[in-house]
Each structure stands twice: as structure tokens, then as C-alpha cells.
Amino acid sequence: MPAFTFEKISPPARRAPTASAPKKPRSVISQMINRIAERRAKRALQVERTAHRDDKPAE
User: Fold this and answer.
1) Is 10 inside any structural domain?
2) What would the pLDDT profile of 9-28 be if each residue is shown by its tens digit?
3) For residue 32, is it within any domain?
4) Region annotation Disordered: residue ranges (predicted)?
5) SS3 of residue 11 by DSSP
6) HEC profile of 24-58
């Protein structure tokens, strides 16, 4: 049995809610990448739609 022990002291409870950190503006590089990705996704959707139209038999 140890001769002494340490008591864990908890920090005081916070009463006021903490303010959220302001959102940092996105960097120019990430904005450019997002624009490219959006255009690529739109183009892929258009290609997919036209492929489905061509697959249907004509009536």
C-alpha cells in the first residue's frame, strides 16, 4: 500500500458557452480546385444523360 496518493483536481466548470471561431476564407487554390471539380462533375452528368438517351430504342 502506498504511503501517499495524489488527488486529481478537476478544472473549474465553464459557465458561458465558448464563442465559435470565425470561419477562415478559403484559399484561392482550393477555390480553383472546387470550380474545376464542379465543372468536371457537370460534364460527366451531361455525358451520362446523353448516353442513356442513345441507349433507348426508337419508337
Assistant:
1) no
2) 888 887 776 677 777 777 88
3) yes
4) 1-26
5) coil
6) CCCCHHHHHHHHHHHHHHHHHHHHHHHHHHHHCCC
Task: Say which residues have a Cβ less than 8 Å from residue 36's Cβ, sequence separation at least 6.
Answer: none
What pTM did the predictor assign? 0.44
Tell me the HSE value of 10 on the side-chain side, using a 13 A CA sphere.
3
Total number of domains in the chain: 1
43 compared with 19, residue with greater pLDDT: 43
Domain coverage including residue 31: 26-58
The span from the CA of 43 to the CA of 48, in Å, is 9
Note whether residue 12 is domain-resident.
no
- Tell me the pLDDT of the chain averaged across its residues: 80
pLDDT at position 41: 94
